Amino acid sequence: MEYFYLIKATQKSGKADAVIWRTNKSEARALLQLDVDLEDAGIETGRGKDYQKPIRTDFPVFNDLPAEGVLDYSWCERYQLGDDGRTWALKPGQAPANHHIDDAGAVSGDLVDANTTGDAAQGETGETFGSDEYQDDSSALFNVAELPFRAQLLAQYMAEERHVYHISMPHRQELSVLEMDTDNAVVQDLILAAENIPEIKKYDMPALWKFTSANKKVFPEGKRHELGKRIQFAKLWFATNAIDRGILTREWASGNCISSVMKTDAGTNAGGGNKTDRNPDYTHTLDTLDVEIALATMPMDFDIYNFPASIHRRAKEIVQKKESPFKEWSAALRKTPGILDYSRAAIFALIREASSGITPFPDRLRGYINANLTEHKHDAPSPETLAKAGHISSAAVTLEAVKKAIDGDEGVPDLETLPTDFQVIGTELVKEAQKKRPDANQVLAAERGEYVEGISDPTDPKWITEDLTKPRSPEIANLGGGMFSIEGLMTSPATNATEEGTTSNVQMEADQSVKNEIDSSVSAGEGADEPPAQTTAVNMKKILAERCPDLTAEVLKSQVSESAHSDEEEEAEQAAPAWPEYFEPGRYECVPNEIYHAANGISSTMVKDARVSLMYFEARHVSKTIQKVRSPVLDMGNLVHALALQPEQLETEFSIEPEIPEGAFTTTATIRAFIDEYNNGLPVLLSADDIKRFLEEYNATLPAQVPLGTSVEETGQGYMSLPAEFQRIEDGQKQTATAMKACIKEYNATLPAQVKTSGSRDALLEQLAIINPDLVAQEAQKAQPLKVSGTKADLIQSVKSVKPDAVFADELLDAWRENPEGKVLVTHQQLSTALAIQKALLNHPTAGKLLTHPSRAVEVSYFGIDEETGLEVRVRPDLEIDMGGLRIGADLKTISMWNIKQEGLRAKLHREIIERDYHLSAAMYCETAALDQFFWIFVNKDENYHWIAIIEASEELLELGMLEYRKAMRAIANGFDTGEWPAPITEDYAEELNDFDVRRLEALRVQA
């Protein structure tokens, strides 16, 4: 960035004003270089000097700009500052000089002259921008949003810190040159990647700048990147939600080219971008995690990387039925941030090491997961983790069975717990080993001195019947399976039969990495095509390579993995910074907080505790009966301290409240509105009245029941209406009411029964199913409306049943408040206040220079010995700056003094320093860390009222602090020597009136 300074001469000096400019990374570097330039030119600035302090102005855009780093005295003769004190303008009646800097047209971010651009075109048709009246006006600004898309894209790409809305005419011409520069692969690839996303042309300037900024992080300049990768990232970035684009960019920048950002059930990042112990072609999601959880809850041990089919089926059944304890583990782990980053072995070990009584209690289960789900290398679990996971290597079990068969075991191997392929191959290997094992008769014959094929040594002199010194004619022998052996091709003697044979003639898959480990080395006396020599026992490795290359590769992979893992553990132990248990006197950088506070030596805080009372000091730091527990509640001072001094470590200590994504459900009203909208879009269900109408219409079609009647006449009328076969009363018999009613009932029983037309909707549906089952079946296929009543949790579950990917603000914030990492929670309001304080500090003319000084050091630890008492001491100033031998220390303090009047503010700050023993700490810092000066940076933390006071500790104040420090150290040393730690008050005393109370007493006596 360019920094332009005016060095204005005082009026009485009579000298000319001067200007100078340079390009630097920061203003602090520019000021340091400016001091050097002024010293070289013999210019002194400040009070009483010929020149005033340098004034930084806006960078002027003129052709006659002086050369970089040159002190120019003629500039101010032609140009003058405007009313704002920053903008340069040509003086009336003056004309620019007839020269300009040759490198002003470089495509490095500097401004390009219009004439230079025209010359570069070499006669080609030039592009004009805007009206002709602006072609020579370098101060005219143009709206970026009105330019072509490529110009918009490159304008944001050239912007460093934030997006731009307007650019000048030279800047626009520079973008044109950059767009046409076909040799600039970075820019051309960016344009091509953006052109593959038509929707990106609808983006506004801030969103376009974020896109270019993400591309610069993922594809840094200076390296050649594949165009396909750029296009892939651009499409993924556009398709990813805005809240997750930072995660996508971070993963791609670290080399994990993830295709999407997976979320946990709580809405946090689920991970899955790093390499684990799973197959690289295996897509690991939350659903596959459920299967692994179900497998881990099963009691038996098995190969966790090759599940037996029966066990895998049982695991899927557990997931489908949501059996316990699977459902408790699944609910907890699916909400764990980054859960997909952990290896399968870590998941198994976590579940199998837990006690069975922890799963019914979600809080205890969450605490157990937070405490035990740790892993160093996700792609290479340690042997301890595999043992805890209950892992049984199928390859190792198979090899053990083969070894037993070779040693004489004739039993059937127990391979039923292995996967099917390992069972088949293992059984075949065992049979082959048992078949090739020599029998007892052969062994006895060999012991009697007879030659036995496969047991006796064929190279023994007593068995050789030919002259091995004479060359043999090559003999070709068919070995079967398309394999041939050429004997006698090499003139060297045959190798010792006890050496292991080669596998150069073993047919293997091309992709198996079975090399030297399978006896592939060729000994000095045998050819590459010579068949392996006979051995006295079965070559287990040869059998594996011939029969089961997959199994062999698996065994070797396991051995190499374990060896590599042990080497990596040793390297990690060596690389880990080992802080000493005892710190010798000296200066130490980057000591973690927990190490420093637990280290040897008396700190300034401990000295302050001793000034409270030695009794309190002993309880806090000797017997430690008083424990100071860190509160999880945010301390604004700590947050400001982190932002101002160590912003890069903000995320390690604080957890920022997550942003609520657009479209998330925030209140009950938004949930209810979604449910209403969903229900309104469903097919209309039959109401109870509609069903009742169908039932009544059906009943109306049925024959009417004959009434029994309330009198003999009505009963008789009903009886006479019956069909003849139901009039059972014979002629001559008396027609009694009872007999007639019996006949009527008999007739009514033969009629179809009417359906019920009363009851609930479900009861009416059951009746309708009797008469119209098809209609009821159609009704059952319709989606049921969601419930609109109940608690908020019930409504959330209803929404999740139809929209599983719905995000709820309450759940997102609850997951943040659970705080599994134990960090300090920071809300948006608190962070906003802290950022405002940070901005005020950095913009302050003095505080900003101290906090951003290039030679600053933060949180440096010093250990030393107190010369008077011999006690060990340690200090840790917030900030130290070494300026050419002058060592400056500073402490950043946040205060709340919104209601203190301006006239009494200095007195209040003085009391703050004395009452909190800040002067004592400063004296201790200067003594132990050898500081020459010490400052306090006080900043008021009340919202929207962030004033700053820079206070230097005077020599008298440091002397007072030093004397009080010495007194406290002597008292501490005496306590350690005698073992006596007196209370703050040890003697009885009588309360006396002070001067004010005496005057009150006298006044009251007069009135009495």
TrEMBL record:
Q: What is its EC number?
A: 3.1.11.-
Q: GO MF annotations for this entry?
A: double-stranded DNA 5'-3' DNA exonuclease activity
Domain of life according to the entry: Bacteria
Stretches assigned to the Putative exodeoxyribonuclease 8 PDDEXK-like domain: 831-983
Q: What class of enzyme is it?
A: hydrolase
Pfam families hit by this protein? DUF3799, Exonuc_VIII
Q: Which residues does the annotated region (Disordered) include? A: 559-578
Among its keywords, does the record have Hydrolase? yes
**Record's InterPro entries?**
ExoDNase_VIII, PDDEXK-like_dom_sf, Put_RecE_PDDEXK-like_dom
Listed A to Z, the keywords are:
Hydrolase
* Protein name, per record: Putative exodeoxyribonuclease VIII
